[in-house]
């Protein structure tokens, strides 16, 4: 049973992250879904590939939620993808929207994690060599 849980965790962590959407015909994924920094608080750098398919033709945009910046916009319903150079120290949410609306059609998060906690610093600020 323990091996089963380990395999299940590997499958879930290794696969692309699929977004929630209100419409089941919208597919929105990010690969990889995690960005791993060495220490807590460090900026994480990762190339993330976003893929999506929208149900009908129209104008859509991929948006970085924290500043509502449109990363790319397109026309049509064909499968699209966009390579983004992620750079951040916190988990970040991305959305698919209609170009002239702010309500998201689908959202997903790129999770920032770290290997080590932030290094401890002495309270006095002095060091002995």
Task: Summarize the model shown.
With 129 residues, this protein is mostly beta strands. It has one helix spanning 2-14, and strands at residues 17-18, 20-21, 27-31, 34-39, 44-53, 59-64, 69-75, 80-88, 92-98, 104-116.
What characteristics describe this protein?
DUF3019, 1 helix, 10% helix, elongated, signal, 4-stranded antiparallel β-sheet, mainly beta, 129 residues
What does this structure look like?
The chain is mainly beta and 129 residues long. Helices cover 10% and strands 52% of the residues. It contains 1 helix and 10 strands, in the order αββββββββββ. Strands 2, 4, 6, 7, 9 and 10 form a 6-stranded mixed sheet that branches. Strand 6 (59-64) and strand 7 (69-75) form a beta hairpin. The radius of gyration is 19 Å and the shape is elongated. Residues 4-17 have low confidence and may be disordered.
Segments where pLDDT lies below 50 for 5+ residues?
A: 4-17
How far is the first residue's CA from the last residue's CA? Answer: 51 Å
Please tally the helical runs, counting DSSP H or I stretches of 4 or more residues: 1
Extended strand count: 10
Give the CA-based shape: elongated
Averaged pLDDT? 79
Residues in helix, %:
10-25%
Tell me the structural class.
Answer: mainly beta
Pfam families: DUF3019
Organism: Shewanella eurypsychrophilus
Keywords: Signal
Signal peptide: 1-21
């Amino acid at each position: 049973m323990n091996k089963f849980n380990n395999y299940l965790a590997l499958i879930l962590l290794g696969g692309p992250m699929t977004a929630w959407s209100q419409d089941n015909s919208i597919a929105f994924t990010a690969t990889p879904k995690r960005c791993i920094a060495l220490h807590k608080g460090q900026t994480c750098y990762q190339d993330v590939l976003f893929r999506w398919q929208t149900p009908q033709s129209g104008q859509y945009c991929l948006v970085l939620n924290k500043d509502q910046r449109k990363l790319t916009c397109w026309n049509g319903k064909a499968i699209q993808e966009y390579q983004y150079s992620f750079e951040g120290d916190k988990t970040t949410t991305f959305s698919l929207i209609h170009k002239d609306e702010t309500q998201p059609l689908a959202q997903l998060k790129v999770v920032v994690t770290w290997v080590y906690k932030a290094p401890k610093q002495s309270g006095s600020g002095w060091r002995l060599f």
